[in-house]
Amino acid sequence: MDSDNTPSWNDSENKMIRDLEDNYLKELDIDKLKIEIELHSIYHPCSKCQEVISIFQKTYNAKIKIWSTEAKGNTRFIELYPNLSTKNN
Ligand SMILES: [Zn+2]
Fold first, then answer.
1. 42 C-alpha to center of ligand 1: Å?
2. DSSP string covering 17-65, please?
3. Is 21 left (phi over 0), alpha (psi -120 to 50) or beta?
4. 10 Å Cβ neighbour count for 88?
5. Cα–ligand 1 centroid distance for 27 (angstroms)
6. Taking a C-beta distance cutoff of 8 angstroms, is the pair 32, 61 a contact?
7. How many angstroms separate the first and last alpha carbons of the chain?
8. pLDDT band for position 54 (cuts 50, 70, 90)
9. Cα dist. 41→29, 58, 60, 62, 82 in Å?
10. What is the pLDDT of residue 34?
11. N or C: which terminal CB in the chain sees fewer CB atoms within 10 Å?
């Protein structure tokens, strides 16, 4: 983690948001978009990525649901990935 408030370029969440903006959203009319994203990961996004996600949500009026197995009792994740075992499961 860097000491400043910029997410690591290599953080997956940051990469996905950049990829969305650079490759899919650039030419679209933001006012007409309805974006809903479900983000599944083992670890909850770090605070810097949460900030990036938060800015993205505000900019595009997007709904982003985050599922991570770090949250206890995440049955949704287990349903989706029954063969994936994690410490918390
Ligand atoms: Zn991160």
1. 12
2. HHHHIIIIITTS-GGG---EEEEEESSPPPHHHHHHHHHHHHHHT-EEE
3. alpha
4. 14
5. 27
6. no
7. 27
8. very high
9. 29, 22, 22, 19, 14
10. 93
11. N
